[in-house]
Design a protein that fits this description.
5-stranded antiparallel beta sheet, globular, 21% strand, 384 residues, 12 strands, alpha/beta, Hypothetical Protein Yjia, Chain: A,domain 2, 40% helix
Amino acid sequence: MTKVDVVSGFLGAGKTTLIKKLLKEAYQGEQVVLIENEFGEIGIDGGFLQEAGIEIKEMNSGCICCSLVGDFGTSLHEVLDKYQPDRIIIEPSGVGKLSDVVKAVQDADLGDQVVLNSAVAVVDATKCKIYIKNFGEFFVNQVEHAGTIILSRTGNMKEDKLKTAVEMLRNYNDKATIITTPWDEIAGTKIRETIEKEEDLLEELLKKVQEEHEDHHHHDHEEGEHEHHHHDHEEDHDHEHHHHHDHEEDHDHEHHHHHDHEEEGHEHHHHHDHGEGCTCGCHDHDHHGHHHADEVFGSWGMETPAKYSKQTIETILETLDESKDLGIILRAKGMVPAEDGTWIYFDYVPGESDVREGQPQVTGKICVIGSKLVEENLKKLFAK
């Protein structure tokens, strides 16, 4: 029997860190395969996880839904045939919707020997409010469809702030277990036990995803023959209203979900081929006013042999926090050679960064994810 565990979480929530902890403390002796669905053309997390001796299969091309609907089922079958693993961990992109991933697993028709074992949402407890306001539908979808919600960065939070975060999440999911204990204080085996207790809730979630999907297609079928020339205007108006937020709290993250392809000119704009059966709707919003990830988020990345110092990387990450000229930066990560012959690994989310030594890679890689990215300025910032 192969167990499939889905570990979702918004950009920078700590999915990779949690997976590493579970591999080390809870899944020893198991044959584990990790499938990642990276947003952005340059996959980074595979390098971070190779150190744990885990097989990586990354899917970088195509938008989120197309990856899942198109080659996702094929990838799962390949993994099962080649490795016969005890466990498959699926780590969706930080901007992927958990319901899409669960539906893709359901649709893959994997047989009786494969069971969807868990659907987890990793949530940065310090950023709940900001992310609900700015990126509601993506963030909330992960929370709504989780059997277990695992909070990260709770160690230094005041008790009242942590309670507020839990209450916010309960507005969207009142049944999932929420783990609030800091990760360094709780054993990976305890996290695993908690995740695997949610069998009944998981059944309920699977049913919910199926119903949502059928409802979505029902609406598509009813409305598909009509043209909605007024649609864009109405939708933009709605988003400016719903996503307006407190300037005092988060003035750097002014975000209205407008995505003008002509103005932005992303090099890494997920150009992909869509067959007739492609249901991702990435050319348009769906009829309920929902967005797809590559309409709202963008990624910029580069491969480079250039050598950096730790100080240079730290200065760059500080600039990501302070500069108003780069776009809305939600996540940056990379692996680059250092001037002293070692390698520098770095992770960044707003207000927090980690720079450390890591294993050598075939070449340096940098990836930045956010919204309305100003690529020229990012190129200049990372140039060497």
